[in-house]
Design goal:
Layout lengths: L12 H13 L3 H14 L1 H6 L1 H9 L5 H10 L8 E3 L3 E4 L4 E4 L2 E3 L14 E3 L12
Antiparallel strand pairs: 1-2, 2-3, 3-4, 4-5
Helix pairs in contact: 1-2, 4-5
Length: 134
């Protein structure tokens, strides 16, 4: 068994997520908790810019509850975090990110920070993941 210290000081967001996933796969629970706290505290700006990516990752890993709860806490109106609209399909927030066919719109209303940098856009394809309440 190897024992040592892991410095997260110079890790960016993607590398921190990669380490988090690896620590979970290797069942290193203490490291998993430490990396989640590092992302929450040190990389909060990156986290806010990558909410959907991080929410996708945390929804696929049961032990990422600290980070998942933090991400969901960034949503100002929790009931609008993610829902399905019969007219717009999957929606994030009350206008924060809506897709109608290939047309998308984004306007900060329910989330603490903007999800997109532009108000309107077109997408060739998009993927929606599933979030399950426990």
């Amino acid at each position: 068994m190897y024992y040592g210290n892991v410095s997260l000081e110079h890790l960016d967001g993607p590398d921190s997520i990669a380490l988090l996933i690896a620590s979970d796969e290797l069942e290193l629970q203490r490291l998993c908790i430490h990396v989640q706290n590092h992302i929450k505290i040190t990389l909060n700006d990156w986290l806010c810019e990558n909410l959907l990516f991080v929410l996708d990752i945390t929804s696929k890993h049961e032990d990422f509850d600290l980070l998942r709860e933090h991400v969901l806490g960034i949503v100002v109106v929790a009931s609008n975090a993610i829902y399905y609209s019969s007219s717009n399909g999957p929606c994030f927030g009350d206008g924060d990110l809506w897709m109608t066919g290939t047309f998308g719109s984004s306007s900060r209303t329910s989330y603490e920070h903007n999800i997109m940098d532009v108000p309107n856009f077109f997408a060739n394809d998009y993927e929606v993941f599933q979030v399950q309440r426990r």
